[in-house]
Specification:
Mean pLDDT: 91
Oligomer: single chain
Strand order of the largest sheet: 4-3-2-5-10-15-14
Number of strands: 15
Order of helices and strands: EHHHHEHHEEEEEEHEHEEEEHEHHHE
Helix content: 25-40%
Strand content: 15-25%
Structural class: alpha/beta
Length: 332
């Protein structure tokens, strides 16, 4: 083991986004399954949301779809193929990703490493913020928050200096300790995610900014944090050596600006027409093939809205100059 101790933020930044980082080198879909990969119904729901944004903006001459953390452009490509022709003619799709542009991507899709400013439309960040690196803190024997240092090659940890300054203020406001602090509490200091989201949302001139992630709220923070690794579809011990994804759930309530709305994915998708209700059995007698297709769609919808699975994702919605397009209390 080398003496290469650093905070988790720097270690994860290098491991994920360095010159040979995990996300620069690897296709995310090869290692973990998001809602985008689970069913085309997800892209259809995003396309429906984009249509509503277009209407709210008065059908502008140019309509932006900004896919932040685009992976290999799967969602952008699917949405482009699902919108009506009149919308597609005005659509300016942008995939925001640090990896190189994948071969064969639709030439209409702009590929860039940063969020463009001054566009109007829908900004959609699906499981992006959980991969924005942040510091990890742990309470010591006196219940004091200290920065966790990690050795890059093997993931061994030790406690470093006391957390102070803006990070300490963030913890006090957004990740409060119980009344009698004990050693071993862990937290991911979400300030870099807050700043990343504010920059992304502020780039939108008008429309709707949406972030979707596994999240937790101030009154129910996980006592031991959520940092973990993913490789080849399995969870692994988080080691910042560039061989695995490194992810932690997001304090989306801290990211949210005044006027923002937080919904579960189940609530958001059902408001966009994704329904897991099984088709009537009578259809099997009159249209067996149609019944099987409807049954397959219902199964996919049920997976996307499962409150114990993908449906537990949180959607953060921030309208910019338009009304909120999803009800805050959609029907059960």
């Amino acid at each position: 083991m080398t003496d290469d101790w650093t905070g988790w933020r720097d270690a994860a930044q290098h491991a994920l986004y360095g010159p040979d980082g995990f996300f620069v080198r690897e296709a995310p879909g090869a290692h973990f399954r998001t809602s985008v990969h689970a069913s085309p119904l997800y892209a259809a729901a995003v396309a429906e949301l984009l249509r509503r944004v277009d209407e709210a903006l008065g059908r502008p001459a140019e309509l932006a779809f900004l896919d932040v953390g685009a992976g290999r452009g799967e969602l952008t490509s699917a949405v482009l193929g699902l919108v009506p022709p009149d919308v597609a003619a005005r659509l300016r799709p942008v995939a925001v990703e640090l990896a190189a542009r994948p071969p064969g991507l639709d030439p209409r899709i702009e590929w860039r490493a940063d969020v463009p400013e001054g566009r109007s439309g829908l900004l959609f960040a699906n499981e992006w913020l959980d991969n924005v690196p942040c510091e990890v803190a742990e309470t010591d024997g006196r219940g004091v928050w200290r920065r966790v240092l990690v050795e890059r090659t093997d993931g061994v940890e030790r406690l470093g200096e006391r957390v102070d300054g803006e990070d300490a203020r963030w913890l006090e406001r957004w990740w409060p300790l119980p009344g009698r602090p004990e050693p071993g509490h862990r937290a991911e200091i979400g300030r870099p995610r807050d700043l990343a989201w504010r920059r992304a949302a502020a780039a939108l001139r008008g429309g709707l900014a949406v972030a979707v992630d596994y999240a937790h709220s101030r009154d129910a923070r996980p006592p031991f944090g959520t940092l973990t690794g993913y490789r080849d579809g399995r969870t692994v011990r988080p080691v910042p050596d560039g061989t695995s994804d490194l992810t932690a759930h997001v304090a989306l309530d801290a990211c949210a600006a005044p006027g923002a709305t937080l919904l579960t994915q189940r609530e958001a998708l059902r408001a966009l027409g994704v329904d897991g209700t099984r088709p009537p059995l009578a259809l099997a007698g009159t249209d067996p093939a149609g019944y099987l297709r409807a049954l397959g769609r219902a199964g996919e919808a049920a997976e996307l809205t499962d409150p114990h699975g993908l449906g537990a994702h949180t959607w953060l919605l921030e309208p910019v100059g338009i009304p909120l397009l999803l009800p805050s209390d959609p029907p059960a």
